[in-house]
Amino acid sequence: MNSFAVINREDITYERTDPDKTQSRGFTWDLDEDDVIYGLGETMGGMDKRGRTFVSYNTDDSHHRPDMPSMYGSHNFFIVEGKSSHFGIFVDSPARVTFSFDDIKKGQVYVLVESPDVAIYTIVEDNAYQITRTFLKMIGPSFAPPLWAFGFGQSRWGYKNKRDINRVIRGYKNANLPLDYVCLDIDYMDRYIDFTVNKKRFPDMASFVEEKKNEGIHLVPIVDAGVKVEPGDQTYDEGVRYNYFCRNEKGKFFKAAVWPGMTHFPDFFRENVRRWFGGRYKALTDLGFEGFWNDMNEPAIFYGENSKQQSFLDMVLDFFLPSRGEKKEGAKSNAYEEYEHFYHVIGGIEVCHHDVHNLYGAQMMKASGEGLKQLLDKRYLLFSRSSYIGAHRYGGIWTGDNSSTFFMLRQNLIHMASLNMCGFIYSGADTGGFGGNCTKELLLRWLALSDFTPLMRDHSAIATRKQECYAFGDPEDFRKVLSLRYRLIPYIYSEFMKARANCDMYMMPLSFGYPGDEKARRIEDQLLVGEGVMIAPIMKEGALSRKVYLPEEMMEVRYNGNGFRQEVCPAGERVVKVPLHEVVFYIRKNKAIVVSNKGVQNTGQLNLYDVVKLGYDVPYDQYLDDGITPVA
Ligand code: MIG
Fold it and tell me: What is the mean pLDDT of residues 211-223?
């Protein structure tokens, strides 16, 4: 059908709510009983979003409760699918939007947009997959990360200096575990000042970066949104001199506290500011860095001149004692009241931050991505915490401060489906969980899912149990589960690059591949990965087996750390046993995949041409390139 038009006013009743106060507007839509609702990217809850209310308002809240309405990004695209409904809606608005699906108004979709600045698009196609594909064409292809970004990364908030980083790399080497990159969290900086390096902790960063690259390891530093108020610092001085920072209602530079203490926020909405901030990455690319993560860009604000000051100790305690943080009203890193006092200049007009809040992180991604493209003659890695629809053209995202629970592992799988629907095909969660203490069992099961996610990074918070793959005694089981990733990269990379070129999904709900299959529609714990693979990871504590639904005959592939065992399985339900050290996945009927012939220790050793085929006896169309040269 391919119709794509602004929403039909006869079908959807617009109603102005609170016209005096907020200029909000909304619409409702009557749902059929069997309608399923997909989408909304980074939100908590099931694949089917029905029965819940979500609020797009980018939020840094590390207590990911099942009923939390907002997360770090706003991805206002959803799909209603049932016997008679097949449409997708994209609500393009920079301010707060509420989506209530059969919740506030029973039996109805109820969308409330708080800004007059809104464009609403509907996409009508035959099924959810086609609707998504049309949407993905509208928003354009994902950025292309380098091949090494498909390797495994280790990270932890708390690695402080060269010694810590070397210890991690040695840990992986000695245990014969593969590794491609290590992230540098905020402690590499000089007093959390962006684009600086603490010289005591990293006396000669350039040669350290070089030395690690020669060992096959990339270092990936963090960059926070807030720029420390620090006369004498280049970023601060230039920002002030050229008027690049946001101002408050009194015309002074807006000031609020984040990790560095008081900071100013770059006005990423202006092109010249983006060009400047993107150019500041030169301080880091000159040191040899080629990958970055952007944090705190919701933006997170601990407190400001208009909100109650919190002590550093207070915030740290909230972090580590979830029960303490949860009891507080509002999340610690979102001094919402500050958003009313901070202004952008957009097209020459002063705009209150509150009205464009959801775009801030995405604009930072744009600044970083465009800057890095200029600075490097090769592909960069970038992943951001905050985002908005469209930002996938500049980088990937990770899903923020999850926790070491099986619940969050299941959420990770669901996130992968809904993020892919919104264009963020390069994404992943903190494998093993950020907050809380990870167990060996949880990390192994999590790795078995992350083996298939483009961004595969183990990350954890300070003061949690050590979570590197060598930190749980005998690493043998980890070697087995992690080595699968490196065998799979030829397939993962090929499917990712094809998906981006075709504006397609890399991972998707089972139902997208089997439209019309009633049973597949209700499956929320299996995913399709690329064209040929279905996964059904074990995501329950203590479970050694699980039920898997096969919509058609498939090849069951069992990997035990050495070889692959294949077995044709009939369509229908089956119970599969998966010991902790094995990974089982499925190849769809009449599909083949390629895997690396050899296990390797990093992507630098990987030969994409040295592959063997698994699955059915059909050709596999492998995408191949050097993994470095920028692609259009
Ligand atoms: O307020 O840089 O989500 O990944 O380790 C916490 C420290 C700031 C939040 C990020 C997390 C990172 C942490 N950051």
Answer: 98
Q: Tell me which residue has tokens 């944090």.
A: 295
Q: Which domain holds residue 570?
A: 494-615
Q: How distant, in Å, are the alpha carbons of 350, 364, 566 from that of 359?
A: 15, 9, 47
Best mutation site among 72, 189, 295, 332 for ligand 1, i.e. most ligand atoms within 8 A of its Cβ?
295
Among 58, 183, 184, 185, say which to mutate for ligand 1: greatest number of ligand atoms within 8 Å of CB. Answer: 185
Q: Which residues of 95-106 are buried (b: 16+ CB within 10 A; e: fewer)?
A: bbbbbbbbbebe
Q: Which residues line ligand 1 (CB under 6 A)?
A: 157, 185-186, 222, 295, 333, 385, 400-401, 459
Condensed to tens digits (0 to 9), the pLDDT of residues 244-272 reads 999 999 999 999 999 999 999 999 999 99
Q: What tens digit of pLDDT does each residue of 425-442 get?
A: 999 999 999 999 999 999
Q: What is the pLDDT of residue 52?
A: 95
User: What type of residue sits at position 348?
Assistant: G
Residue 353, both tokens? 């931050």
Atom of ligand 1 nearest to the CA of 385: 3
Name the domain count of the chain: 2
The CATH number of residue 96's host domain is 2.60.40.1760
Note whether residue 510 is domain-resident: yes
How far does the centroid of ligand 1 lie from the alpha carbon of residue 399, in Å?
A: 11
